[in-house]
Amino acid sequence: MDTGEYQGFNVELQDPGIALVTFDKPERMNGMNGGMKRDLVELLLQAQLDDAVRVVVFTGTGRAFCAGDDMSGGYGDPSRAPRKVPAAPPGHGDAIGTYDALRHISQAVNRSVRDLDKLTVAAVNGYAIQTGLSLALACDFRIASTEAKLGSATLRFGLLPDEGGQWLLVQHLGVAGAMDFVMRKRIVSGEEALELGLVHEVCPPEELSTRAMALATELATGPQVAMRMLKRSIYNAAELSFTQACDEIAAKTAITDHLPDAREGSLAYREKRAARFNQAPGGH
What we know:
The protein has 9 helices and 11 strands.
């Protein structure tokens, strides 16, 4: 995976296989533009295919995780050309341009996060609004600082949660909860987000990085192949019938039961020791 500077964020690879993605434009509240989104999609493709990456953690600098789209420069500003992928036409010039740009740039980020087999963590340090909220909700785990503020609030501008935010909110809040959240333009604190079920944990800001990396380390040391298959199975289960979900996980279990990690897990249990997963070639 290509680490270092991307447009609007920096990437570090830390042991044991944690890709730390830090949004690093605090002067614009880590707002996203088209180039930044395309760099994120490229990064996630690299993370998917790189065996050195086991978990991806997203966080921000300054007062924001990501406070939405960058409203100051717009899409296609040549001074903000993406560094990791070639420039593309900005879109949004007319109705079909907006449709195309949403489908292939903005929505592609959240689809890439959700489609990534490897587990993801959002460490929400501050404002996570619209684009930032959708990205956090697309992740598998969310830890929020007590200074975090989370909301869609697109209706404050007469806009829609057009990056899949409405679907993600329905998954987390149900239809009634999502309706209340977006129609009333709610922006909630980290504690309120925990009560609603939007985040898994809340902690003081000075503990956020430590807690997020501890969670990422826990996930990265688990049996990676089985965890990636289970992640996919859990998301599939939300859209399948019970019979279909049983068949789907049976097919995956037919693979995972015969992996070296399964043998190691059973042996470690009998020997009353911690399992040493991912040791076999190809164990990731």
